[in-house]
Amino acid sequence: MSQISSFPAECNVAIIGASGGIGGAMLRLLSDDSRVANIHALSRSATDASLPKVTAGSIDLDDEHSIATAAQRAAQNDALDLVIVTSGILWEGEDLRPEKSMRELDMQRLTRLFAVNAAGPALVAKHFLPQMRKQSKTLFASLSARVGSIGDNRLGGWYSYRASKAALNMLLKTLAIEHARQWPDSVVAGLHPGTVNTALSQPYTSRTPKESLFSPETSAQHLLNVMNQLRPEDSGGVFAWDGSRIQY
Predict the structure, then answer these.
(1) Please, are residues 170 and 248 in contact by the beta-carbon 8 Å criterion?
(2) pTM tops 0.90
(3) Looking at the DSSP assignment, which residues form a beta bridge with residue 214?
(4) Span 46-86, pLDDT tens digits
(5) Which residues pair with 40 in a beta bridge?
(6) Sheet holding 82-85, edge to edge
(7) Domains of the chain, with CATH numbers?
(8) For residue 241, what are the CA distances in angstroms to 29, 63, 155?
(9) Nearest to residue 90, comparing CAs of 105, 109, 106, 64?
(10) How many Cα neighbours within 13 Å face the side chain of 172?
């Protein structure tokens, strides 16, 4: 049984951020998928390599050399079919929290979120996209967020997080245009996982209705279904967990 039946058999997969909530859930689901041959579980911290088909490796999105090395190792024996970037931050420590008003804007917060949420995935794409297989469906996906939609912004606030995800969406769109010139069967896309009960969102989910708060496993399952349905004509888009397209 496979959740990614639209991809070639013997898929070579890389998950960046595999030690996180959604990344770890995807790792567990794909390790049990009949269509997957290898999974490169990449993160800064330790990842469970005891699962079938999984090879753990290190990657640091603040270090481009680390990203380049990880890409070369992941494609050392076979080209990549599916690359999923699940890393990102909303808050960090006691001082870096989502802004409630413009008075809270500062360079440190803006720089940190843009580095992790936009520049990091872009550098992953720089080194991983050239390692993708040709002449078959491949997918490079990065977790985005509905709050990164400029057209959908009606509440304001969360300046750095919103802007960093909007920047990610533009980077993915631009990457998709260039990548399609040599990989016409490939898809580059942003994915909104919904509100998920992970460390990233946990401090901000107290008002989320129970039925709208996903476990990492539920979100990962939804996202795999969306990835399976995406086609080359969808490349450059941003899609929610239910498959609906999110405006930029």
Answers:
(1) yes
(2) yes
(3) 196
(4) 676 789 899 999 999 999 999 999 999 999 999 999 999 99
(5) 14, 55
(6) 54-58, 36-43, 11-16, 82-85, 138-143, 186-192, 238-240, 245-246
(7) 11-246 (3.40.50.720)
(8) 16, 30, 21
(9) 109
(10) 32
